Amino acid sequence: MAYIAFFTRFIIPRGTFFQTTGGQWIFVLSADGSKAYRRPIRVGRQNPQHYEILEGLEPGERVVTSGYEAFKDNEVLDIK
């Protein structure tokens, strides 16, 4: 019997968020774009333009990749 494993991986553009989070978490936008929620992720391979996200994102979700220095320890951001 053979087992087949399916992996869902996402590629996101490199951003300065990684310097603050170490690739441990990212802000994911709500469906209406009015809020962003902090969510754990797992980063795989990376190159000068992109990060491979192995866990923590679903198809169609949008993320904030800009710098997080001003967000401090916020779990939720109000997007205006």
Report on the structure:
The chain is mostly beta strands and 80 residues long. It has 1 helix and 7 strands, in the order βαββββββ. The protein is globular, with a radius of gyration of 14 Å.
- Percent of residues in helices comes to under 10%
Strand order of the largest sheet: 6-2-3-7
Shape: globular
- Unreliable segments (pLDDT under 50, ≥5 consecutive)? none
Number of strands: 7
Summing up helix and strand content along with how strands pair, one would put the structural category as mainly beta
Percent of sequence in beta strands: 35-45%
The averaged pLDDT comes out at: 90
Estimated radius of gyration: 14 Å
Tally of separate helices: 1
Helix and strand element order: EHEEEEEE
Biggest sheet overview: 4 strands, antiparallel
What kind of assembly state do the chains in view correspond to? single chain
- The N- to C-terminal Cα distance equals 53 Å
